[in-house]
Design brief:
The chain is α/β, with parallel strands linked by helices. Helices cover 41% and strands 14% of the residues. The protein folds into 4 domains: 117 residues, no CATH class; 67 residues, no CATH class; 58 residues, no CATH class; 210 residues, Uracil-DNA glycosylase-like domain (Uracil-DNA Glycosylase, subunit E, 3-Layer(aba) Sandwich). The protein binds uracil.
Amino acid sequence: MNDGRMRAPRTILLRPGADLTGFRDAARRLAAEGVPPEAVTWSLESAPSLFGSEAAPQADRPLSLPRAVAALIPQVVPHRDPERYGLLYALIWRALHGERHLMEVASDPLVHRLNLMAKAIGRDLHKMHAFLRFRRTTDDGDERYVAWFEPDHHILEAAAPFFVRRFAGMRWTILTPEGRAVWDGDALTYGPPGSRGDVPEGDGFEAGWQTYYETTFNPARVNPKAMRAEMPKKYWRNMPETASIPALLRGAAERTAQMIEREPTVPARREPARAVAAMADQDPKNLDELNAIIRRTEPLVPGATQAVLGEGPPGASVAFVGEQPGDQEDLKGRPFVGPAGQLLSRAMEEAGIDRGGSYLTNAVKHFKFTLRGKRRIHEKPTAGEVSHYRWWLDRELEFVAPKLVVALGATAVLALTGKAIPITRARGPFRFDRHETRFQGFITVHPSYLLRLPDEAKEEAYAAFVADLKRIATLGAELSA
Ligand code: URA
């Protein structure tokens, strides 16, 4: 490739920020033409890449790079250091010229420096994922969430997909001094910078965040130095809960002493956050207003990503009530989209029920789990938790006004009747009359029960479930006629 002749110095102009595509294209062409690193100047002026206009037939052929080198490139490109592109191209050059294993030599000064840069990006991403806080805003009645964040490096594009996965059901904008990421529920786009002033000051979430932080703050574990290293003060301004930190730190020693005295009588179960209790003071006039309240209320048990609201057309003739969102539902913000939900969809289809025309919701609106390693294991809500969420479910059903309400499993039965009734005893038509509007109901098993059965019992249980759904379809049609 390099024929040893002197090459004219080359200047590559890249987009400001993290121009991964521009860098990859340029590096490919330069390497294909045999241009050594010392002959290249990487310029980060505010102009688009000029290099793209130079015709180079080999440019589209991908470079055959060692995997570790290829993986390092996107991890380093967002770094603020203006030398990053030059360093990466030097790495590429060496990997292509006899040093394919250079990434294994961690003490190599170039490898060491690039590894440090990649680590800094990893830390910056972690901080953005952990410390970014959305605020709710409504323009023309449309609900949006807006956040302001000042990362150390050019990481907006690398960080945004995480928020898509976490908050897929919300429409949000993340503003930074360098650009914005916008998620409209379907597509992620990038646009011009914003300013802190574009983010609403208070949105009612503040109290929730503060309550959450105060209830999870453990004074006995406090280590202010480690805390500041983990959550540097520069992020505090955008995090409502940090308003509590100075007072909590001041009171930590005293609270620890009180905890030691109180220890034997402290109940083992988790304390519900206070926020949900306040919901009965609200007076939603329709389903949208109710959903707005649910969305901004803290989970009863901390940990859930977001509230998972009911889904389906108001006025649907049949409403299905499950237990609580699972792991997938929590991440996607939609009910019944995980394994149990997929089984439910299949059975509904076999029974001739249109899922899109039905209303699907849960007795409890937040995912409750315990962590096992990195896995979030579903934990059944307690009767107390179910009754805390019942107010929402009652209002929701009143607004949706279905002709038939289907309880999927024991938690839904508890939520709808206020009683722990075994499914085996009550399976079939049932009258739910706790409500101001009485509902004709139907009790059947929860689809996750079918998933847990041993293989030999699955087929029969599934057939019985589909048979229930067929009866539900008939009953729903009769009641709506
Ligand atoms: N199980 C439920 O009860 N609800 C869901 O949304 C998903 C699984």
